[in-house]
Request: fold
Amino acid sequence: MTPSAAKRHAQSPVHCSLTGAAMLLALFVAWTSVAWAQPAATLSPPVLQGSSDVPYPPDAKGDAVVVLELVVEEDGSVSRAEVQEGIEPFAAQAKQAVLTWRFTPARRGDAAVAARIRAQVEFHQEQPTASAAEAAPTPEASVPATPAPFAQSPQAAPEAALDVTVRGSRREIGQTTLSASDVREMPGAFGDPFRAIEALPGVTPVVSGVPYFYVRGAPPNNNGFYIDGIRVPLLFHVGLGQGVIHPGLVDHVDFYPSAAPASYGGLAGAIIAGQTREPATALHGEANLRIVDAGTLLESPFDSGRGSALVAGHYGYPGPILGAITPDVKLGYWDYQARATWRIADRDTLGVFAFGSHDYLATMDSGHTIEQLVSDFHRLDLRYDHALSDGRVRVAVTLGHDSQGATPTYATDTSAAVRLELDQTLSPTLRMRGGAAARFDDYGFKRTVTPMDERGRALAPDVPSSADPPPTNMTAGAHADLVWRVGPAVEIVPGFRVDMFESSRAKTGTTRTRTTVPAIDPRLSARVTIAHDVAWLSSVGLSHQYPTLRVGNVPAVVASVPGFAFGSARLQTAAQASQGLEVALPADFVLTATGFVSGWWGLTDLTANCYQLMPPTTPANTTGQPRPEPPYQCPDDKQVDGRAYGVELLLRRPLSKRLSGWLSYTLSRSTRAAHFPTLEGGEAVATVASEFDRTHVLSAILAYDLGNGWHVGGRIVFYTGAPYSALAGSVPVPPYNNRRTPAFVRLDVRLEKRWRLGRDSSIAFVLEGQNVTLSKEVTGLGLNCMGLMSADAGTTQCTQSEIGPITIPSVGVEAFF
Reply:
């Protein structure tokens, strides 16, 4: 089993599910020796490839051992599995799972041959402190000099049994993993693990339904999104949309709210990393048709199982339904994926993965369409994988093109990247991971409208001088860490990164300004088993990131360009730490309590409001107060310091249980040393609550299996208001950010009826809705400045804008085959 497979094993529903079912897999194989009538050729055993996940049976209890005899054919597939020992329901679960396993076939010399192996699958009821086994070599085998004979008759027995040992790996410390099956029944997630991120502690959306999050105080522009190690601008469509990768292709999503492993760098916030499934060994597909979108996935092996090809995608058409609910919001999206792999040798695989996404979100104001987000990205990833006997090596090259913004200004990025990944087990207690990567980004600006003054003269581009001309960035670095099992109750993971950040811009003619800054990021995490049902988890790390520059007079979360401002050589720096306890409770509940603290230096939080001091020549309204006129002056090149701290609670019972639940709560505080213009024309710097600091964030889920294929569930999302300042005209007045917008609450629901059509096929009717309460949200992302000035000095003609409701009912049919 390759390290990627070991990782999938550790992050599968077995390890993340709330049932607490963890499996320690061991295959014990021994070659028997019988002399050939002719000289024997060199024998090599089958090598397990891909995932070896065996979910713990629903409603089962306790531990169990199942021994099976498998026949591994010449193409590496398992053609037969016979239970030798074991009780139900474990025996049936193990037999069904092993039939999906994939091996590199046994070989006699250069010829692939069939083999018979014995597999022992051990089921252990999961405990939060011991949910997986150690990382170890895959597979290990002892091959005798004289192999057993193999009869050519179709009825004859295949190769004699082979003994192999395979062990999985623990999940990362401080990591939360959401598998596709974990969130299958989660209301409001639409069967997609990407959408389920919002239900985790520490996560606050800038606007409900919009895929930009504050995570433990880090602004959206500091959070990173990955698919198979490929950096992307976002992982889920705006509003009700699915993830940008079809759920049938997603194996799981890893969430690191802070201090991520050393393999992730160049970001001073959270990491959300999606991992795709291993190539399938049999033809399969999925399709769904809803009143707002349609999606499909089809995958098939070829060349006798040496290769696999997949195509998938979504297309959203929510306009008619959305218009009937809220005519002030326009929404659309689509995505595509295509993947092909080909095994060129027993341990060597070539692959190509192409995918892309489009999103469009706009609001209506007095009959005019105002774009809030137009986002497109495309990726082409070429990869080579080599499976070691005790690890894996991957070399990959990625080409990309992004475009994000809103009328009239869009930021583009043409990129190229190369990465090397190594995962090697050194001993039963020590595992080394490392790699190197380099990335090139060529940024640009695209304008669809040229602004004119009242005399018809073209105005200067609506891009701050700190971002114009756009930069060309080059980032290169290396990383390494050790997963060290110090003792039965202690595991530590020391690691570090070394990166070089280089940004250059055209100055005059052919002259370019260039800035190069090195960074060293140490990381350390630890897991200590305090008692059988209690574990202490600790993580601390340092991270660096390019400054982030706002593009044009558009909402800050829409488009930004990483790069150094003129005259600046300062990176964003984040120091993050967390301490937590994970406790197994009765009735399969698991409670995680985590305290965290984060500090930022040189932070560029682009979600902060921007204000403009009104020139004296600005026409006054009936109250004598000047009207604000865009563009607002944004402090793009004024980096600040920030802090965040809080407590997170996550109480969950497996969604696979008949009655399941999930309670996520965050109590936190986030502050910034923010810049504010003054009425006198100066500037004030004050430490205040950040623009989207929310004291309380709560997500509660309850789901119930009614039997006979019926499932029902609901989710409540609640968070308190964000801070803002009272305004005089459009200028904030002290005390800054001492007011709060109204709290927001919404309800998501889900109802499903499923019919089984054989062992692997089914069809379902699904009724689901996000924000069925049609709740609107008050946000500081924009100001409505068209009203009149109030006599109350604490109010103004400029007020926070109201968005939504972002809501679409989903009624549809899903089919699996």
Summary: DSSP finds four helices and 47 strands in the chain. Residues 1-41, 128-169, 611-636, 786-796 have pLDDT under 50 and may be disordered. The helical segments are 3-10, 13-16, 90-98, 319-325. The CA atoms of residues 133 and 168 lie 5 Å apart.
